[in-house]
Amino acid sequence: xxxxxxxxxxxxxxxxxxxxxxxxxxxxxxxxxxxxxxxxxxxxxxxxxxxxxxxxxxxxxxxxxxxxxxxxxxxxxxxxxxxxxxxxxxxxxxxxxxxxxxxxxxxxxxxxxxxxxxxxxxxxxxxxxxxxx
Length: 133
Prior knowledge:
CATH topology: ADP-ribosylation fold
Number of strands: 6
Radius of gyration: 14 Å
Strand content: 25-35%
CATH class: Alpha Beta
Number of domains: 1
Number of helices: 4
């Protein structure tokens, strides 16, 4: 079994808890879609206690290669984490964290993918919380 984390805006959590985590789907010709490693649910093995030691822009840089993914000015929305537990065969390590402060500090952490085109059911969710950044 492997414990992984999905980071998202807090406003998305209720829907994920009720309906499951939808797959990211790559759309050809649209490079802004975030399914760069293929279709499915994306996770990291970066634990919330590790991530919250960094500012939100460093976290977004590490996971998405987009520093402003979650905003940094005004009143940015809260970021939540969702913990899932999957069989080792259901998820694969597909990339290292993107370059930046997190990767420099946590070089063995990375990005994982559960390949799918449908929702990952809520029964795989073990826990969730709000990231304190």
